[in-house]
Amino acid sequence: MELLLNGFTQILQPSVFILLIGGVIAGIIIGALPGLTATMGVALFLPITFGMDAITGILLLIGVYFGGVYGGSVASILLNTPGTPASAATALDGYPFTKQGKAGKALGISVISATSGGLISTLMLIFIAPQLAQIALGFSAPEMFGLALFGLSIISSISGGSVLKGLIAGVFGLVISTIGMDPMTSYPRFTYGNLSLLNGLNFIPVMIGLFAISEALVIMEEELTGGKGIKKVIVGYALPKWNELKRLWGTIFRSGFIGTFIGIIPGAGADIAAFVAYNEARRFSKKEEKETFGKGNPKGIAAPEAAGNGVTGGAFVPLLTLGIPGDAVTAIMLGALVVQGIQPGPQLFQTSGDLVFTLFAGMLAANVLMLIFGLSGIRLFTTILKIPKNIIAAVIIVLSTVGSFAIANNYFDVFTMLGAGIIGYFMKKFDFPASPIVLALILGPMAESEMRRALVMSEGSFMIFLQRPISLAFIILAIVSLVLPLIMGQIKKKKATVN
Predict the structure, then answer these.
(1) Secondary structure string (H, E, C) spanning 323-336
(2) What is the C-alpha separation between 139 and 155, in angstroms, rounded?
(3) pLDDT, tens digit, for every residue of 17-48?
(4) What span, in angstroms and rounded, lies between the C-alpha atoms of 416 and 51?
(5) Phi, psi at 189, each rounded to 5°
(6) Which terminus of the chain has fewer CB atoms gathered within 10 Å of its CB, N or C?
(7) What one-character DSSP code corresponds to residue 188?
C-alpha cells in the first residue's frame, strides 16, 4: 500500500499529470474516429516517449490506450459507426438509444461502465497479477480453440429478430475469413492472383463498411426520400438515475471480470471480451428482458463497455509478470519498456517495485480521468446530432475512407470498406445483422489456426478437446449458447400457435 501511495505522489507531479491528461483526451479522440484504434494511437505516440523518462513516457501511452478503448463507443452510440472493433458490440444497443432520443443517457452508461471495468481490472492486476498469469499460462491451442468456438456461438444471441439470418451472416463471415494464406502451410486461398488478398481481408475496413458506410447510405436515402431518420436528442447530462444504475452493477462487475480474464490470455482482446460479455449479459437477464436486447437495453451497453475496458488491466498481467504481451497494444508497451531499460518479467516487482506501483497508480488515475472527460463531454458529443444529416453522412464517409486507408496506407482497404458498405446497406434493407460477420472475421482465423495446431499436438485426434477440462467447458458453453436461442424460438412459436 505504501508503494501505491508513493506512486500517486509521482503521478501528481504537474509535468507527469498533464501528459497523462493529454494522453486520455487524445485516446478518446483517436478511438472515436473510425479505423483509428487504440493500438494505432499508442503506436503513433510511441516515438514521442523516447525522449521522456520511463514513468512519464509509459503513463502517456497508458492514457492513450485507456482513452482509445473507451473512445470507440462515442461514434458507435451516436452514429452507429464503431470507432474500434470492441465498440461494434456497443452499437447493438447504443444506437437504438440514440434513435429514441436518449443519446446522453447511453453515453453516460457507457463511460460509467467503461470506468468501472477498467478499475476492476486494474485492482485485480495490483492484487492478484501473478496468480492470474499462471492461469493464462494454462491456455494452449485446445483452450484457445474452445474460447474462439464459444465466441462464435454468440452469433445466435446477436442475431436480432431472426437467428437464421444471423447464422447466414455468420457463415458468410467465416467463408470470407478463409481468404488469404493458409495459417499452417502459407498456401494462398481464394486470392485469385491478387497480392492484396494474401493477408486476407482486414476486418477493420469490413467493420467500418458494414456499420459506418451502410449507415451513411441509409441517411442519404432518407434525405432523398424525405424520411424522418433520427429523433431529436436531448442534449445535456442525461445521466442514468441511481435506480437504473443499481440494476446495472451486477452486469458491470461480471463483465469487468470477464474482460480481465480474457485480457490475460495472449492473443485475445477487447473485441472478443465485448461480445462474450454482451452474450453473458443477455443470458443472465430475465426472460422478458432478453427480448429488449438489440432494441435499446442498457445492459447491452454496460456489458461490452465494462468488458472491453476490463481487458486494459488484464492485458498488463502477463506483460508485467511474465514479459508476455496480452494484446497488440501491450506488445507496443513491451517495446516502450525495453527502450526505457526496463525488462518485464518475474523479477520486475523485486527490481523496480516503485516504478510498477507508479504505473498502477497511473492506471487508476487514467480511469478516473476517463470518467471525468467522458461525463463532461456528453453535451459536446451529443451536439453532433444537431448537424444536418447530409453533412453527417458526408463526414462519416470521409472519416471512414481516411481511417481505412490509414490502417496500412493501402487503397485496397478503402475498396474493401466501400464494398462492405454496399453489402451492409442491402443487409439493412433485408434485416440481416452485420455483427455476426464482424465476429466471424475476428474469431474465424483464430478458431481455424488453433484447432489445427491442437490436432498437430494430438496427432490428429479430436479427443484432445474433450480431455482438457477448460476446452471441454468452453465447447459445452458454445453448444448451449448456440442451441438455446433456437430451442427458445421454437417454444415461443408453439405458444403463439396455441394462443
Answers:
(1) CCCCCHHHHHHHHH
(2) 23
(3) 999 999 999 999 888 877 677 877 888 888 88
(4) 38
(5) -125, 125
(6) C
(7) E
